[in-house]
Write a structure and sequence with these properties.
- There is one protein chain.
- By secondary structure, the chain is α/β, with parallel strands linked by helices.
- It has a single domain, classed as Rossmann fold (3-Layer(aba) Sandwich), CATH 3.40.50.
- Strand 7, helix 3 and strand 8 form a beta-alpha-beta unit.
Length: 190
Amino acid sequence: MNSNEYPEGIKVLIDEERIAERVARLAKQLEEDLDALQGPVTLVPVMTGSMLFTSDLIRHLQRPLRIAPVTVQSYPGSSTRSRGARLQTPIPDALKDTHVVIIDDILDSGGTLAVLRRLMKAVGPASVRACVLLRKNVEHDITAICEYTGFDIPDRFVVGYGLDYDGLYRNLPFIGTLPEHLIGVEDAEA
Ligand code: 5GP
Ligand code: MG
């Protein structure tokens, strides 16, 4: 097997080493910023895609913090196009008066983060910021909606390191691109 190729033709876009280095630096930057604030901190990982990113990130954070995951579904089943973000769990009341850090795997249209920020306002957090590992579509004015970004990537459908296609590939330790032949007919034609 070619070292750059996973079975089924998945190509490595960002390898484990680069992910680990970037996550450590992101955590340092986040911790410095959080240390400058008064009051409790709650991390809100967006499940399931940010599971691996969150678990690596938090191991670099020394400060006290709470974790309150939410589940959002935007790509149901074997789809690679967003059908609009749908929150599947309530926003936790415990976010009230805390500094919230939303953690997501990837920022594409920005719809997921926009929905979460809007719903969170009702609970009354002290502040809200967002941290994403990957960012697509950099031409969007997204600086306003995402304060911390790991990598800017091309507009390709990616899997691995928590990200799935139809529930698969989350366990890959790298970020990879999916070959066309693995993407369903519905999406290829969309
Ligand atoms: P947005 O709401 O910003 O358009 O999309 C964000 C969500 O869509 C992410 O949390 C992720 O669940 C999903 N998403 C966007 N692009 C990709 C991708 O390339 N691969 C995978 N697996 N999910 C993606
Ligand atoms: Mg997601």
